[in-house]
Amino acid sequence: MLGLLLILTMVAAPQPTTFHVAPDGSDDNPGTAAAPFATLAKARDAVRGLVRDGLESDVMVLVRGGTYYLDEPLAFGPEDSGTGEHAVTYSAYPGETPVISGGCAITGWQETGGGKWQVELPEVKAGAWQFRQLFADGQRLPRGRCPNGDGLLHVQSVSEDVTEIVLDRSPSAADLAGMDAELVVYNNWSISRVRIVSSDGPKLKTANPVGWIGHGSATTASPNKPCCVENAVEFVDEPGEWYVDRRSGVLTYMAAEGEDPNDRQFVAPRLEHLVIVKGRPDAPVRRVRFRGLAFEHAEWPLPEFGYLGIQAGHHGTHIQKPTYVLPLALGFVRAEDCALEDCRVAHTGATAVGFGAACRRNRVEGCHIEDVGGNGIMVGWRSDYGGVPVVGAGGHSGSPNLAADWTDPGDAPSQNVVANCVLRNCAAVNHGCVAIYDAFCAGTRIAHNLVHDMPYTGISVGFRWDMSETTQRDAVIEYNHVHDVMKKLADGGCIYTLGWQPGTVLRGNLLHDVHRSGFAHGGAPNNGIFFDQGSKGYLVEGNIIYNTSGKPIRFNQTAKEHLTWKDNHFGVSPDDPAFPTEAAQKAGPDQQ
Predict the structure, then answer these.
(1) Last residue of a domain, one of 46, 74, 102
(2) What is the per-residue pLDDT across 447-465, written as a single tens digit (0 to 9) for each?
(3) How far apart are CA 345 and CA 191, in angstroms?
(4) What is the number of structural domains in the chain?
(5) Does the pTM of the predicted model rise above 0.90?
(6) Cα(first)–Cα(last) distance of the chain, in Å?
(7) Are residues 381 and 521 in the same domain?
(8) Are 21 and 43 in contact (CB under 8 A)?
(9) Are 236 and 230 spatial neighbours (Cβ–Cβ below 8 Å)?
(10) Which one, out of 341, 350, 476, 506, has a CA that is 20 to 30 A from the CA of 419?
């Protein structure tokens, strides 16, 4: 009888309505397996028609392998939502990997001598396209820089207004005027990028002050700070380096000996955003899911005032002026029960994935996030599309925006999950960014992730520099494996926390190999967990920390007694008989 009921239930359950997309399809097709659509936008519009008529089953869009170059971001609104009973899923066809690209393939290289190759890009010359990232065969290529590789110059002196910088030696270019060259300064826990308007030997004149003004020398150019100069054609002198002249439209590339760039796949990004999922206060986007897709090649245009890093992708000109946050390649605002599952996000100029206002019960699960210019995943992204500032009032040292809570507490994201993901080589462009960020949110769960190969901190939780209560609370950061962090900057660690966060739990995390680079500026150490100002109200349980350049735990303007401690293992390495091997094996992505 039970078996009969099961059979009847299976027969009665409606099968998903399915559309198909393939690179060799046509948007004039009906979207069947035999006659697929060519674009995801067309499939979305077909789904939109079903939503308008009322969903009677789940909807599945199956995407065949291949590369899909976007002309504009894929935008999803309330009209594309699933329902309480039915979800809308955009999924890779079984066994295949579709790539959703915001870039454009570059072909037609001509050899010009001395190992250099060039191609003219008419859209760049016409001012219709600018890019600061270039990839070949899935690898990020360095812009021409001085010095080469990991070498660095040093600031010798700065003017009072921090726009005239004297370096310890001259860059290898006679005059940097008109080249869009950038001075990149490595601060304590952030970097600054500002355009150079002219140069005379070691003396540089910048378009704007170099650094976030108002926090002392920690976030501004100052004597002895390490730095480099990027983006001049004279600097293209090592294999892999490149420079694009936006006036002539000529892209120059230095090839390795025997290399023909025409035998490689070069891609430069066009789009800043790849996917925008954005609801309204009265109508969130619900139950839209992406599964098994790869999202690649998102651009990040440098703001006119430069990138003056504050912390974790936030930037601005002055402590008393608006604070901005890096844009998202894949962004969710006012979204509920949406998901990225088993996806890959790579090769971006700014942040990969983020959840903003009123995002609830969304998931990033089983994903690979790598080679991104900013943060990997941001829960509590505090902006909107179009480069508007973070909103709010009050905060760190009188800043009107930086540490502000949501104007409407109901907008605080809640119950979102980042789990079983692998995040590596985030902050590839702006090194003060982190792999996973969570702030001004309630009940975020960050669990069983592998985070490694980071220039700064791995996981950052909280964003208020005092003990005042905010919407940030009840986060669970558990069983993450974080290692090989702090490879360039200082004053951070595997996990960094800030502010009072009632109910927050740090449990079972495996944290090790916290480095101290030879050019990290300032005396602040790097630690396994850094509890920064106001950190209070946490349970710290079962964490394992070893091989850190500083102490396993650090406190700044907080104290051990502000937290609850249980069964942690600090400073015991794997070759010690006392090392908790069984507990350590629980950290990282769940293999089940």
Answers:
(1) 102
(2) 999 999 999 999 999 999 8
(3) 23
(4) 3
(5) yes
(6) 33
(7) yes
(8) yes
(9) no
(10) 350
